[in-house]
């Protein structure tokens, strides 16, 4: 498209939407053109639509379809895999202004929300009904429900409640031709037709733009949580302890892991003294028999050779302990530029994966800080380097990440447990899915997006 035709097309878009909906200022466009995967240099978008309604999204998508313009959907921009990174000549369609909680139905245990609702805001809103929305990514205070749906986000409570897909009943999606599909069921059960709901959740904006969702709520556990903090002399004993606690039926709501390098980063930032532990596990039980189940966890930790173990029944003290885990990312970010990765392996392979991470770090001479949702096998090794700009990532950093992806797959795991494929891992999707799996996914993509305009180069590309 020539510059003149492009400008005429953008003017058409501006005129078709409410005032101040379309952004063309280069500085404002730059903000809308990337997520938190800072190592990726975004392309040059020609405009961004800051939608407030489904009709706004429909207008934008139909315009893009007419003119053959790529569309990059965007939520809060908190993703870590480059899924919301602009490509050259694209239209960014942001749903971040669609922030209404349209309905809370405590009798049906559901909430109807727009995609720009922040995860933590939804939880605060439903708490007054004694309910909660179970998925809670570490970014819950800044990530939106739409982005959580697009990536099938996880979080600290996944070990008990599962990922986002298990807590969504219905979505409304603007498809690549501008038509609007509502799929799923407001009922608990519903098996009519293919599972299109599951198809869109985790599709990373490659099949459409989600503009509304009915999510499932659960009763907030009664009583106060019990939080267990344990320090271990080595990673193997920590992983043995985790597996034993899960087998024992402790049914924790959280089971989080931090390695020694991460603990020392927290020490350097906050003046704590956790760095003598080779590994730390933070666990929490809630609801009926929380104290008894926390005792089971303590017993398993002790049997595995724990150095120190502390159980906190006071909610305030427990919250302080959980905050240690939430400090892991900011503490690591202080150490330099960071590539945060996301692999998941079977529980029985956690120790093997951690050994592989250590060996890969030595092989490529990189610094790796690892945390994870140990109870479900999801690890986040972050590779840190200093010097240069963040997008000037050294070759040995990506070489180490590549080896980690392949190590996870070799152990029967996956290259992403919750962050998504996005741009960063697109080259590895075929390795994991295989030839037939890749062909099937591409067939679905081509059926819904025959022009290949939706989030090109991401995930299913």
Helix content percent band:
25-40%
Strand content range: 15-25%
Low-confidence stretches: none
- Per DSSP, the total helix count is 15
- The oligomeric status of these chains comes to single chain
Radius of gyration (Å): 22 Å
| Anisotropy-based shape | globular
The total beta strand count reads 19
Overall pLDDT: 95
Which sheet architecture does the biggest sheet show? 8 strands, antiparallel
The CA-CA distance between the termini, in Å, is 23 Å
Kindly name the structural category. alpha+beta
What can you tell me about this protein's structure?
This protein is of the alpha+beta class. α8 runs antiparallel to α10 and α13 packs antiparallel against α14. The protein is globular, with a radius of gyration of 22 Å. The chain starts with a helix and ends in a 13-residue tail after the last helix.
